[in-house]
């Protein structure tokens, strides 16, 4: 699990990557990143749980 300093480092790099790819490609970048990370889950149920959690957090 990442500590707060590592989360800050990752967040900063993510923000910079989003800026580099540009607004027009941000959705594609984030979808590609999400699929890469979700593919590392043990099974589809776990991946779907992460998708549901992200959707709930996006609607707060």
Q: How would you sum up this structure in a few lines?
A:
The chain is mainly α. It contains three helices and no strands. The chain has one domain.
**What is the strand tally?**
0
Overall 3D form: globular
First CA to last CA: what distance?
24 Å
Task: Indicate the radius of gyration in whole angstroms.
Answer: 13 Å
- Global mean pLDDT: 97
Low-confidence stretches: none
Strand content: under 5%
- Domain module count: 1
| Secondary-structure content class | mainly alpha
- Overall helicity: over 70%
Order of helices and strands: HHH
For the sheet with most strands, the description reads: none
Number of helices: 3
Question: SSE layout and pairings?
Answer:
Blueprint: H1 4-21, H2 26-38, H3 44-58
What does this structure look like?
This protein is mainly alpha-helical and 60 residues long. It has one domain (4-58). Helix content is 77%, strand content 0%. The chain is globular, with a radius of gyration of 13 Å. The chain starts with a helix and ends with a helix. The relative contact order is 0.07. The model has no long low-confidence stretch (mean pLDDT 97).
Key features of this structure:
single chain, 60 residues, mainly alpha, 3 helices, globular
């Amino acid at each position: 699990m990442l500590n707060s300093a590592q989360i800050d480092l990752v967040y900063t790099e993510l923000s910079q990557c989003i800026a580099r790819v540009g607004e027009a490609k941000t959705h594609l970048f984030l979808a590609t990143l999400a699929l890469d990370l979700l593919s590392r889950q043990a099974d589809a149920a776990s991946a779907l749980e992460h998708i549901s959690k992200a959707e709930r957090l996006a609607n707060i």
